[in-house]
Write a structure and sequence with these properties.
226 residues; alpha+beta; 7 helices; 44% helix
Length: 226
């Protein structure tokens, strides 16, 4: 694990154990996913009954079954599209979709938090409270150890002076995982982070005093004594 190699703090236990509140954020997104599924299922059943009543005297049995199956397939596609886009709204778990929450549950149950100094660049701003960014995780020499694409709360983005700050990461730098802003270390806001393919790069020069302070925080962070 690169974070340990660089001397950055790593939680002694999995992220979900170190900060149990993150599971509530994932549950909120999962509940939204179940609501979408139930809604589409009810609509599908209603469509099937309506088609049977309307067409029972005009179509063969095979044609009727085919029509019902086609309608159910269309609703399934609608549900899959909806669940991949619908995001949780609220102070916790901002920006998580149901599928993302399911992926993160295993990551947070198995992987510890790693504390990283980082540089953040805006990718796309949104009207809602989250914003799409690239997060560059930095080694002690300010080289880029990994790049993540994620949605941060606007408040988190605004709080990072000149785009620099400290974030927690759980997962694998090759595949992504969970990012969290530890403004409240007992209840960090979690976002889903996907790994971005990159070429070897050096972060743009920042304020050396700021970077030294961020590195001190990353190295000296103590979990469980907050």
């Amino acid at each position: 694990m690169l974070a340990r190699r660089f001397g950055y703090a790593v939680s002694p236990e999995p992220a979900a154990t170190a900060t149990p509140s993150v599971l509530g954020q994932l549950d909120k997104a999962a509940r939204l996913d179940r609501v979408l599924f139930i809604g589409v299922s009810v609509c599908g059943a209603a469509m099937a009954v309506g088609m049977i009543i309307a067409l029972r005297d005009e179509l063969s049995f095979a044609g009727l079954v085919g029509g019902v199956l086609a309608g159910e397939a269309a609703l399934l596609v609608i549900w899959l599209a909806a669940r991949s886009q619908e995001r949780v709204r609220g102070p916790g778990g901002e920006g998580l979709t149901g599928p993302e929450a399911h992926r993160l549950r295993r990551v947070l149950a198995e992987q510890p938090w790693q504390v990283w100094p980082c540089r953040v660049e805006l990718v796309r701003d949104y009207v809602n409270p989250s914003t799409l960014v690239h997060v560059f995780l930095l080694d002690p020499d300010q080289n880029v150890a990994g790049v993540m694409k994620t949605r941060l709360q606007r408040a988190t983005w605004n709080a990072m002076t000149d785009g620099y700050g400290v974030l927690w990461f759980a997962g694998d730098l090759r595949f992504g995982g969970a990012l969290a802003h530890p403004a409240d270390p007992t209840d960090p806001t979690v976002s889903y982070a996907s790994a971005v393919p990159r070429q070897p790069a050096t972060a743009s020069s920042g304020d050396s005093v700021v970077m030294e302070e961020l590195q001190r925080q990353a190295i000296g962070w103590t979990f469980g004594q907050l």
